[in-house]
Amino acid sequence: MTEDLHIMPPEAPLAMPAQDFSAGFRDAQVPEGQRPSAGFWRALAFSPAMAATLGLLWVMSDWFGAEGINLIEAILLSLISFNFFWISFTVCTVLLGMVSLSRQEQPKREGRPQPLRVALLMPVYNEVPWNVLGNARTMLEDLQARGGQHYYAMFILSDTRDPEIAAQEQASIEALRTTLAPGLELYYRRREENTDRKVGNIADWVSRWGADWDAMLVLDADSLMTGRAILRLTDSLARDSGAGLIQSYPQLIGAQSVFARMQQFANGVYGIAFAEGLARWCGQEGNYWGHNAIIRTKAFANCAGLPKLLSLNGQETLIMSHDFVEAGLMRRAGWGVRFLPRIRGSYEETPPTLIDHALRDRRWCQGNLQHLKLLGSAGFRAVSRFHMFHGAVGYLMSPLWFALLVMWALIGQGEDASVLHYFSPDNPLFPQWPEMSETRHVLIILVMYAMLLAPKVLGVLALPLSGVRYADFGGGSKFLTSFLAEVILSILYAPILMVQQMIAVFRTALGLQKGWSPQARDGGSYSLQTLVLCHMLETISGIALSVGILSGLVSIWLAPIAVSLALAIPLSALSGVSAGTARRMVGMKEDFHEPAITRSARRHRNELKRLIEGKTVMTPAE
After folding, report:
1. What are the b/e assignments for 27-40, b being 16+ CB within 10 Å?
2. What is the model's pTM?
3. What is the DSSP-derived secondary structure letter of residue 149?
4. What is the DSSP letter of 620?
5. Which of 295, 337, 323 is nearest to 119 (CA)?
C-alpha cells in the first residue's frame, strides 16, 4: 500500500485542556447579559407529569392499603409509579410542542449576521467511502448554490483501520477533488492510531487546526444536510453571541426495510411535536446528540475537553457517550446550548433491522450508563444532569418493566393462582393484588395503555400545525394505513426491544460489552441460527407467559406482550424485509416527495462508486 494521503491546510493549534469534574468552571469568553428563561415551559412539562404520577400512586395505594402495604406491594407501586412518570412526561412534552406549534409567532427582524468560517467535520471509521463522499460533495455543492457570506470547508477525518477500505477512501478523495467546482474545499486526514475513537478524532482536529475556524459543524458518516439548513444554523450561531452549541433536528431518511420505515415514519410524524416541546422546556440548556450540530470552536476547546473516568478496578476509561457530557460542560461554563427543531433539511439514517438496532443500543447503553457516575460532578446545571439521568433511565426502565412483568405474571389472578402463593402458602409478603375484573381497575389499565399510545395520536394531530399535510403521504387513506401499521408494529416490537435493552444493561453491568464497534449502516438478513441465539430469552418468556394465560394463571392483559415475545424470531426476520413489502406496509412522505438533496446524494454516491470500480468517469460539477 502506498503512503497515506493527507490533504490538510496549515496547522493552527488551539489548546483543548481536559476539564475537571470536581471543580466548577466559567469561561471568561462568554458574553455578559441576561438570557431568556424556560422556567414557565419547564413547569408546564414537569408539574402535570408529577401530579398525574402522584394521583396514580394515591389510587393504587388505596387499593393495596386495606391490610397494610408489604414489601412486594411497595416494590410494585414504586415500579409502576416510576414508569408512569416517564410516560406522562413524554405526553406533556408532546402537548407543549402542540401549543408551541400553534402559536403564530412573528419572526424577529434581525440584522445581517457576522460572517463565520465554518469547518464541516465528518469523522469516519471503516465506512463505505463513496457513500460518505457522495454526501460530502452534495452538501458542498448545495452550499455553493445557496451562496451567502459564510465560508465553509469539508474535513473528512478518518480513523479507518481496514487497509482495503483506507485505500478506497484515499482513491475516492483524490477522484472527488479533481471534479469539485472551484471554490469548494475538501480536506482529508487519516490518523495513524485511532486514539480515544471519535472523541480523540475531533479533539485532534481542534488542537491542530481549530484556531483558524470560528465554528465547526459536526456530522456523522451518514449525515446529510441541505445548504439551507447549514446556513440557518450558521446564521443562528452568528446572531447569538452567547450560544456555544446549536443542535438541529435530524430526520431519518433512506429507510427501505420494514423496521427502518417504521422508525422513519415515527420520526417524521410523531417526532415533530415532541422535538418542539423539548426545545421549549430545554431553553438555553439543551442537549447535544453528537452530530448535525454547529459548535463555537474556541468555546468547545475551552470548556469541553474530556478527561478519562476511573473504573472500579482503577483503570482509566474513555467517556463513550461524549455528546451529553460535552453539552453539559459547555452549559456549565456559561454557554447556551440550544435546540432548533424548525430548521428542516437535517438528515441521518437508521439501522435497517431489529438486530442492527439492538447492537447499536448496546453501545449506547454502555455509554449512557456511564453518565450516572457524573451526576454528582461540580458545576453542572440541573437540566444537564437531568439529560444525563434521562439517557441512562431510558435503558434502566427496560429491566424495571421486565421486573414488573415478571411480578405481575407470578402474582397471577388471585391468591389461588399465584405462583408466589404456591411457593409459600403462608408467605407474609404475598400482595393483595386487586381483582382486575373490577371496572375501576380495568379503566386504570386502559388509561395506562392509552398513555403509551397518546404521544403517537397527539403527534398525528399536531402534524398540520408543523406545515406537513396528510396528503403528502399519498392521501389520507394511505396515511391512515401507514399509521395503523406503525402502531401495530411498534406494539409488537416494543416488548422485544424491552428485553434486548435489558440484556444490554446486564451486559454493561457485568462488563461483557467490550469496545465500541462502528454502526452497521447497510445491515442485511440474518440466518435462522443468529435469530434464534439473539431472541432465545424473548421466545422462552413469551411461551411461558402464553401457557400461563391459556391455563388461567396469568392475566389476559399480558396477552399482547406474550404474543410479541413468543413471535420474536419471525418478527425479527420480518424487520429486515425490504422493497415492495415494506413500502406497502408503511408508507412515508418521501415515497411521494423525495427531497432534492437525497436525489443528488444518491447520484453522487453511485457515480463515485462506479468510478472507483473502474466503470465510468466522473463529471465535473457545473
Report:
1. beebeeeeeeebee
2. 0.91
3. S
4. P
5. 295
